């Protein structure tokens, strides 16, 4: 996981990318407790095998992401599915990813924006029934309130193979949420 030099999470990177950051001396500091060890070739002179230990959380000297604090994570179908726990937020049915639909709480025709706070995942039946109405007009209740994940939450939603120390690091940056609506 890559952080900016201020310690904010930026993105997931593949180990190949991490290697190039180490070799170009871009690592500012390391914050993980896990290391990924890569073995290189043997040195012809010394016979010693080279080894590179990549930290699971690395901060990078890189100014291109310095506005990460205000960055709104992309509204993507997969991360929305995980944010809403794979459920229809109206009837609570467990959805498969392929059958999930993106529903605008305030319909777009009524000026509802396409943003995290105005979209929920739904089943097809609820989406069709609600149609071009607000939840109040349709007499439907949301099981949880839609929210905009911060970058730490988004990174947790985006990665299914997260290491324990990466998860702990991101959880410290994620706001505590009580998602049950009144
Ligand atoms: Zn439903």
UniProtKB/TrEMBL annotation:
Pfam assignment, any one: HNH_5
Ranges where the HNH nuclease domain occurs: 75-128
Protein name: HNH nuclease domain-containing protein
Organism: Salinisphaera japonica YTM-1
Lineage, uppermost ranks: Bacteria, Pseudomonadati, Pseudomonadota, Gammaproteobacteria, Salinisphaerales
């Amino acid at each position: 996981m890559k952080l900016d030099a201020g310690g904010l999470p930026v993105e997931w990177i593949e180990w190949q990318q991490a290697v190039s950051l180490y070799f170009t001396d871009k690592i500012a500091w390391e914050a993980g407790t896990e290391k990924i060890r890569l073995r290189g070739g043997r040195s012809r002179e010394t016979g010693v095998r080279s080894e590179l230990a990549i930290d699971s959380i690395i901060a990078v000297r890189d100014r291109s992401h310095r506005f990460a604090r205000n960055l709104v994570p992309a509204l993507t179908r997969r991360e929305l599915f995980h944010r809403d726990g794979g459920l229809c937020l109206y009837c609570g049915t467990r959805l498969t990813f392929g059958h999930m639909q993106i529903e605008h709480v305030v319909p777009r025709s009524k000026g509802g924006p396409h943003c995290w706070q105005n979209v929920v995942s739904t089943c097809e039946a609820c989406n069709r029934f609600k149609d071009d109405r607000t939840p109040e007009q349709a007499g439907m209740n949301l099981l949880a309130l839609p929210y905009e994940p911060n970058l730490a939450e988004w990174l947790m939603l985006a990665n299914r193979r997260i290491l324990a120390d990466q998860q702990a690091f991101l959880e410290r940056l994620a706001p505590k949420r009580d998602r049950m609506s009144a």
